[in-house]
Write a structure and sequence with these properties.
single chain, elongated, about 120 residues, mainly alpha
């Protein structure tokens, strides 16, 4: 006989036992992006329209380069997790697995491409 109440069994557990952690990670990444993206847009806006030498000079400095890398990593991770949640809500079976693999692969390719370009510019 179990001596746990219904509430005690339910706290922090959804049907997959990961709902709370997923919600928490999405909230944390959304708050981080809310602070990083406006700062990154200001830096990127200053570089927009400049010639190549000036753009390389801006993104060769540590703060813009690190911020750009963080926006790429956190933003694409947030995209992948959010898209996965939508896919899980609306698809079933093999189609679900194929779309989730596609979304995670797309996010990884975009992050790798962006980081490679940033490294080429910064170094």
């Amino acid at each position: 006989m179990r001596y746990l109440t219904d509430r005690k069994r339910a706290v922090g557990k959804g049907s997959a036992h990961t709902g709370t952690e997923h919600h928490w990670s999405m909230t944390v990444s959304a708050v981080a992006l809310a602070f990083m993206v406006p700062t990154w847009l200001w830096i990127f806006g200053r570089a927009l329209g400049q010639d190549r030498a000036q753009v390389v000079e801006i993104f060769a400095r540590p703060f813009p380069a690190i911020l750009t890398a963080l926006v790429l990593i956190v933003g694409l991770r947030h995209f992948a997790k959010g898209s996965t949640m939508a896919i899980e809500d609306y698809t079933r079976g093999f189609q679900r697995k194929a779309w989730i693999i596609f979304v995670y692969s797309l996010a990884a390719v975009m992050a790798a491409t962006g980081l490679y370009a940033l490294i080429k510019i910064a170094l």
